Structures are given as C-alpha cells and as structure tokens.
Amino acid sequence: MTAVDTPVEQTAPPSEQDIPRTARFFTLSNVSLLFIWAVLIAVFGLLTPETFLTTDTFRTVLAGQAITAIMALALLMPIAAAQFDLSIAGSMGLGIVLVATFMAKLELGVPLAIGLTLLSGVVIGLVNAFIVVGLRVNSFIATLGTGSILVAAIQWISGGQQIVAGIPQSFTDLGRHEVLGIPMSVVFMVLIAVVMWYVLELRQTGRYLYAIGSNTEAARLAGVRVNRLTTIALVVSGLIASAAGIVFVMRIGSASLDAGTPYLLPAFAAAFLGATQFRQGNVNVLGTLVAVYVLATGVKGVQLIGAPFWVDDLFNGAALIIAVALAVRSGRQKALV
Amino acid sequence: MAAHTEEAPLLRIAGLSKSFAGTRALTDVDLNLRAGEILGLVGQNGSGKSTLIKVLAGYHRPDPGATAVLAGEEFALGDAAGAADAGLRFVHQDLGLVPSLGALDNLALGRGYRRSRLGTISWRAEREAAVELLGQLGYRFDLTRPVGELRASERTGIAIARAVEGFTQGARVLVLDEPTASLPAAEADRLFEVVRRVNAAGVAIVYVSHRFQEIFELCDRVTVLKDGAHVATRDVPDLTEPGLVRLTIGRDLEGPSARHATAARSEEHDVALRLRGLVGEGIEPFDLEVARGEIVGVAGVTGSGRESLGRLAFGSLPRAGLVEVGSTAVTAGSPVASIAAGMAYVPADRLSNAAFVDMTLRENLTISRLRDVYGRRGLLRERERQETLRWLTDLEVKPCDPEARLATLSGGNQQKVMLARALRLGPAALVLDEPTQGVDVGAKRTIHDIVRRAAVDGAGVLVLATESEELLALCDRVAVMVAGRCIGVFATAGLTADDLTELTMGTAGTVADGTSEAPTDSVGAGSVGAGR
Predict the structure, then answer these.
(1) Which B-chain residues 192-231 have CB contacts (< 8 A) with chain A?
(2) Beta strand pairing status for B204-208 and B295-299?
(3) Is position B350 within any domain?
(4) Is the CB of A17 less than 8 angstroms away from the CB of B409?
(5) Phi/psi of residue B230, each to 5°?
(6) Is the ipTM of this complex over 0.95?
(7) What is the mean pLDDT of residues B41-55?
C-alpha cells in the first residue's frame, strides 16, 4: 500500500574488499589489456621478427597514434559525465582548416593562429553545452548535429580547397622536432594526458564528473553544479579536439578537409576499451592510452603479416563493440550505453 | 443492501494465506463480494491489503488451501491470465499508463488496435469506441493529448475505462487499489462519480482506501484487515466512523489529538530550521519550526504531501514561501544554496537519488564537501581515506573499507554511508526523507541512534516517514499531513503508533477539530497548530 516495496536486503558478495589494494589493482579483469598487449607483441614478434620488433615500427606506432590518443583524451570528460561528444571530429577538422587558413591565407603569426584556433574549440564546446544543458537536447543528437554543421563550416571556410602551400616552415619544423628522440606530437599527447589525469583523478572537477556520470540526480542533490560541470566537459573536449587539429597540421604540413572523421571511431573505441581497465568501468587516462596502443599494435602486426588495408577499421569497430559489451556485462556504464 | 444477505456472493475467496520467506502476510483470509455492490477494503499499512490484491491479480501465488469462486465457477489464484479470464479487472495505484501517449493509444495497449480491412489501424473505429466508453464514464477530453498532461482524475478514469472495457464480454469485478491516494479532494469527487457509473453498469467493485470518509461516501459494505487477518465485514450504514477506526486499529478511540496536542513552541533564537508558508507540489501553505537539538517528524500517507516536503525544503523542487536555516533565508530552487546555508538532505529512494553504486565508499562520502580533503595540489586521497575510515568505524558500516564499491554493501550499510555524507557537513538543519527505507531491522536501530546523536550535537532534524513506529521512536514532535495540509503538530510523548496512523488517515479531523486549527493562516507564529 503506501509503504514503498523496497528491494530485499542483498547480502554483499564476498569480494574485492578482502584483497589488498595493490593486489586488487592487478586482478586479471582489471588489467587484462596489458596481458593482451604482451601477447600481441609476443605473437607478432615471433611471426615477423625482422619487421615487427624494430625501433622503427615502435616509433611509427607511437607517433602515428598520438593524434588518435589526443582525440580519445578529448572524450574522457564528457563520457565521465555520461555525455557524448560526436562533434570532436568536426572540431578537429575545423581546427585543421582554421590554423592553416590563419597562417597561410591571413598570414597571422603562429602563436596568434594557434590561439584563435584553440578559441574555436572553446566556442564549439560552449555551443554544444548550450544545446545540451540549456535546450536539454540529448548530447548524442546535439553533437551529431553540430558535427554536421562543422563539416559545413569547414567547406565554407576552405572553399572546398585543401591548403597545401603557405604554411610557415617554423610551424612544420615544430612538428618534426623531437625531444630526446620522441616526436613532438607524442610530447603534446603526453602533456595533455598528464593534465587530464590530474584533473580527473585529483581535482574536484574530475570527481564531480564521475559522480554525474554515475548518478546525475544524486550528484545534483549532493550539491554538485551539474550544468556547470557538463558545460566544462564539453568545452574541454572541443578545446582538445581543436588542439588535435593543430598537431595534425604541424605533422603533415598541409590541411586536408576531412581529416577529423577517421579519428572519431578509434577515439571512442579506445575510451570505452580503456574504461574496462584500471578504474572499474569508468573512463580513465591510463586505460585510454593503453587501449590506443593495444589497438594500434594489433593493427600494425596484422598489417605486417600482410593483411589488407581495411583491417584498421575492422579492428576498431570490433574493439568498440567488445569494449561496450564488456562494460554492459559488468553492469556499469549504465548511464551511457 | 441488507436484503440479500444470504444470497451466494459473486466472488468468494476462502482460507487465503500467504507467507513470504517465513513471515505471514495473510492468514486464513475470507473475502465475499456480492453482485452489484461496492465493497470497501481497509486496513493500516502492513495489514495485508496490498498482498491480498496482488494475490487476486495473480502477481503472488497464495499458500496451498485457498479457494476462489467467481459466479459459481472456481478459478485458480496466483495466475494472472486465470484472474483475467474469470473476469477480474484491476486498476493499480500507479495506473500503468504511458504518459506520452494519448487516451486512444493507452486504451489500445494490451488489447491491440482495431483493424481496418487493409490491416491498418482503424482510427475511426478506435475513436468512436473510445468516445463512447469514456462518455459512459462521463469524460470528454482530447483523446490524442498525452495523458501525462491530463488531470490526475482523468488519468485514473482512463485506467478504469481500460480495465472495464472488456466488461461487455461478461467480466464483472473491478478492483481499485487506492485510486485517490494522489488525488486532490475535488478530483476525488469526480472519480467517485465514475466509480458509481461503472457500478451502475453491473460491475461489482472492491475499493481499497485508507481514507475512511470515502468508504462512507461510496461503499455498501466494508471489509477490515488487520495484521494479515480478516477482522470484520460490515454493512456501511450500520457503522460509524469511530466504529470503523476501532475495527481498523483494534482498540478504542481516545481522542489522541485532544490528549497530545501540546505542540510546544520553540524559542525564537534556538530555531534551526523554519518553514513558513511553504507551498509547492502537493502542499498547501505549510509552517513548521525545528529547534536546535530537536527531532521533528512529519507523518502522512502517500499523497498527503509528506513525500514532497523534503525536496521542497531542500530546494530540489520549485517552491514558494520561506525556508530559513538559523535565521538566514535560503534561496529557493538550489540544493547548492541550501547546503551552503547549513542544510543537509538525505533523500528517499537511495538508489535513484543518493547512491553512486559504482563508486567507492570514500568517493560516496566525501562528495558532499571536497574542500575538507583538498590540499594545494588537489584531492588528498590519504586524508579522504582517513576521514572515511573514521565515519565507517563510527557508524559501524560493514565492510569497513573506504575502497569498497558501494554496490557491494547491503541496503542498511549503504544508507549509513548516505547519512555520513550528510553528517560530515556538520549541518545546522538535517532533513531525512524515509531514512530507513529498504533497511533491515538491525541497521534501522543503528540509524536511529545516529540521528539522535546528530540532534544531541545540536542539529535540528526533520524526519519524513511513512511508518508511525519510526516517527514515534525518533521524534519529539510530529506534524501530521493530510491531503496537502498540516492538520496539527503533536508531541510524541504518550502517543501510540495507532494514534498517529489514525491521524494520518484524516479521520481524526473530527476529533482534532475542537483543539487544533488548520495552520494555513498562522501569521508569523512559528510552529503551528494544535493546542493554542
């Protein structure tokens, strides 16, 4: 009658809490990606020792995946708060076109061009936040829409033409620069990862974002400013995605128009696959980075064996589905998937 | 009605018992429903009304030995299809409508749409049938408008229409489970009209309610349950309201309101939480003061406004009126502002409103104020862990492990963590909404101790609860809400659970009238109510 039927007391399963903390971290399911990684390296090393286990391969994979990793990092704050940001591909694409246009056509200085391009990412994030928080449109739909609008903007600004000439030497030199033998793109990726790790793990903002993702209403009632934090998450993802665009131009030296899109799915695959690791069902920086490189190692290995070019897409698509299926099985990520 | 006393009943249930894991919810209950009558079914919370209805509807299987006969034919209890085939129809409390669909679609749910010859939905046939059906019940409204936008009584009407639609095919019993629980008084009258029309069409009705006035207004006979057993079945005209109360609570009415309506006024400077002219969802202007160190309860059945009072006070629902913590007015509509003003709130329905089940106990606890565990370089995990460990030890949470995930805890232990989250703020005013919902007996006692300790430490505590026993165990005073209004504030000393339950049923209005005033227009007078 009036009394609410409440669930029967569940007896807590004998679990986690009996295991010491460090040991708990290294349980198989929690770090399974590391084992898979080791197995991949061992298998491909045995199959193609002369090509796979070389520093060249190592460096190609490391540098080649830096932008994918940055894009995956861009997704972490929104996903932590149970929001999608599908517009990161568009933000990156716009970043590419803007930074090249600013430098090659408007002949702005490199710092100003970079600054204005990053600003575009912030603006995109604010627009997304307005639609999601202000207009209460589901973030999946909202960013699907803004993503398409961004594609239009890219075409309009570029006039449909790639920008290949006029990008200053000083800028592309930065992309070819190495620090202690590590390519600059990797350095940028590591910098972003460190800051993101700090914010997610050690700042109030990160804790609040995870709380919102876990139970939005509970977070609101616990005094978390849900709207403000959702806005921050979307602004940061836009900002990082436009930074990925800048790094792209730095590395490649030209601005192609549809360069952002191929990064979208690998970024989601890595973020979700990473969520199965280390932090028990929540997206996290370390898991994301490991996931990016496990996927890349797999793809590279199969390519060296002689698999066709489309194996890349096959791998990432399968990884995304498997990762989310694992998350669903473990009963987490309810809010999102 | 008394004429056909010995006539064979339309529906006869005999020897019905139901046990859940060793506890008896129903013991050897008999129920007889005559053709064409409206039978009231009353009883306190936990008397077995719900279980009885659920057995009838086939949701629960009864213990062996029960028999059920409808119109001379035996049918199996505990089988939903069997009950439906036999001709039983139910309108449950939550109605089971899809709010975003219109009446047409809601009526078609379950039975399927009428088809045209082409196999498409025949909207014209649907519309004509719906207009006729709802017209018979006296309704006329836009059939395509989402039912979520209709009035509460109209929604109930649609649910009833859907339930009785098949009556033309020989079905004949409609069971209404507390249909007025969340209905304003004016709309309840509208609903009675519908119930009478259905009844006039030859349908016998079982009407479950704990509002006794309704029984007297609507029913021919009434069956009383208490502690899972059948107490009595009487003709309503032979009963008085005090008589029915006596049957329901099993003892005489002594006018508890007259005895206990003392409602001590708190001293001005000692007020921890003041609600003045609070208006919002389901609540008419509500006034209450909670002094420092005092535990004040709010009693009320579901639909009385009690269930939204906590959220209104805390600002997570829109409100009008004044809320003060200490002597600071709190900005409306903002949990953040309420917390900053010194109010802490533990919501009802932990899993939806409070728990981060996939996060650790540490993260669940410290979220209420992270700056306590913050250093120059961010969160200090070790300090978090220490503080969490202190609370877990203090509140006897098992397991006592800050890094355990909340999901691995039992309900009682989860609730203790939710309380700790609020208590670590050192709140001046603590608002607890159903603090022991879904909690086992042992944990309940611990939680009560925790709440008392918080009051001793100087917090003013407001407890909103369904259970009379809980309120009496915890509180110094209890405000009683009936149909959105506070009918009085009563000292708990000497008050029994039955007294309180009876007050929440609203019947005691007649008793309390002599001693208490409705609190609607008490200007500036702090705690309201009774015994001025």
Answers:
(1) 208, 210
(2) unpaired
(3) no
(4) no
(5) -75, 125
(6) no
(7) 81
Structure confidence at residue A23 as a pLDDT band (50, 70, 90): low
The H or E element containing residue B284 is strand B283-291
Residue type, B97: L
Q: Domain A48-329 adopts which CATH fold?
A: ABC transporter involved in vitamin B12 uptake, BtuC (1.10.3470)
| Cα→Cα distances B153→B3, B95, B139, B160, B210, Å | 34, 11, 10, 10, 18
Instruction: Indicate yes or no: CB of B467 within 8 angstroms of CB of A3.
Output: yes
Same domain for B513 and B397: no
Residues A197-211 pLDDT 10s: 999 999 999 999 999
Of chain A, the percentage scoring pLDDT greater than 90 comes to: 52
pLDDT at A101 over 60: yes
Collect all residues with Cβ–Cβ distance below 8 Å to B236 and sequence separation of at least 6: B40, B215, B216, B219, B220, B221, B222
Q: What is the CATH number of the domain that holds B13?
A: 3.40.50.300
Alpha helices by DSSP H, B46-176: 49-56, 80-86, 103-108, 123-136, 152-164
> For residue B129, what pLDDT is reported?
82
**pLDDT class of A308 with cuts at 50, 70, 90:** confident
Q: Cβ separation of A12 and B399 shorter than 8 Å?
A: yes
Nearest Cα of chain A lies from the Cα of B339 at a distance, in angstroms, of 7
Q: Which of A209, A221, A226, A329 to mutate against chain B (most B CBs within 10 Å)?
A: A221
Cβ contacts of A218 on chain B, cutoff 8 Å: 347, 352-356
φ/ψ of residue B341, rounded to 5: -80, -10
Q: Residue B287: helix, strand or coil by DSSP?
A: strand
| B245 and B161 in a common domain | yes
Count of pairs with CB atoms under 8 A, one residue in A, one in B: 126
Same domain, B280 and B404: no
CA A78 to chain centroid, in Å, comes to 10
Are both B419 and B431 inside the same structural domain? no
Tell whether B413 and B453 lie within a shared domain. no
Domain-terminating residue out of B249, B275, B299: B249
Query: How many CB atoms are closer than 10 A to CB B456?
Result: 10
Mean pLDDT across B507-511? 47
Q: Which residues of A touch B177 (CB under 8 A)?
A: 1
Residue B34 has what DSSP assignment?
A: -
Please check whether residue B358 touches A, CB under 8 A.
yes
Nearest chain B CA: its distance from A104 CA (Å): 41
Question: How is residue B300 written in tokens?
Answer: 């009320």
Nearest CA in chain A to B179: A1
Asked if residue B264 is part of any domain, the answer here is yes
Tell me the range of A120-134, A273-287, B11-25, B33-47 where mean pLDDT is highest: A120-134
For residue B76, which of B85, B68, B65, B84 has the smallest C-alpha distance?
A: B68
Give the structural domain span for B443. Answer: 256-342+427-521
B408·A15 Cβ contact <8 A: yes
Q: Give the number of other CB atoms < 10 A from CB of residue B169.
A: 7
User: Rounded to whole angstroms, how far apart are CA atoms A333 and B180?
Assistant: 39
Higher pLDDT, B131 or B112: B131
Q: Which two tokens stand for residue B173?
A: 């019993």
CB contact under 8 A, A221 and B352: no
Tokens of B328: 């600071």
Q: Which of B358, B372, B381, B434 to mutate to test binding with chain A, by most A CBs within 10 Å of its CB?
A: B358
Q: Where are the domains of chain A?
A: 48-329
Q: Is B35 left (phi over 0), alpha (psi -120 to 50) or beta?
A: beta
Taking the C-alpha atoms of residue A315 and residue A319, their distance in angstroms, rounded to an integer, is 6
Give the number of other CB atoms < 10 A from CB of residue A314.
13
Quote the tokens at residue B481: 């809400």
Domain end, chosen from B395, B425, B455, is at B425
Smallest Cβ–Cβ distance between B379 and the set A202, A222, A223 belongs to A202
Give which of A1, A215, A334 to mutate to test B binding, by max B Cβ within 10 Å. A1
